[in-house]
Amino acid sequence: MNRQAIIEKIRGNREEIRLHFNSVAYWNENVRKPDEPEIDPDPDGTMKDIDRAYTELLDREDAKHLWCVHVIGPDELRACESRAAAEKATEELREWAEKQDFADVVFTPEVAVWPHDAASHAADLVRWNPELRLDSENARGMARELAAQDSESPTRDNG
Predict the structure, then answer these.
(1) In a shared domain, residues 144 and 72
(2) Residue 66 · residue 113 · CB < 8 Å
(3) What is the mean pLDDT of residues 120-134?
(4) For a Cys staple, 5 with which of 1, 68, 89, 136, CB 3.0–4.6 Å?
(5) Residue 134: CA atoms inside 13 Å, Cβ hemisphere, count?
(6) Which residues sit opposite 69 in a β-bridge?
(7) What pLDDT is stored for residue 46 in this prediction?
């Protein structure tokens, strides 16, 4: 299995653990009869430890990339500050799309790694997030600094 497949498997395993905790919490709060004891979803704490380890690993892995939402159909990219921000924006776009009348139009937002350089990611972040706008000279200076860092640092993996 290649690295990306392993990361996606870990991401799926973490989601299964969280689903387990949520399901048990739901049962305890909504299904359990008053005379029944609550179910402990993790009696020995192992699942919480695994969830913490998975989260730390995924956070480190996600920090290596620049993230965006890729809308398949119109083939639009929207830069996001983090993977979590891209996941949130993707969900918001899916909810919005469900309310639209897209009978014959493909409109599928997905979380993706930004396919371009850091300077273009920064510029797109500013475009989509007005609160990040600085005066134009500052913005150009920051973009030049990011571009310089890209050329100096072989550790940043954008794809």
Answers:
(1) yes
(2) yes
(3) 77
(4) 1
(5) 10
(6) 78, 111
(7) 93
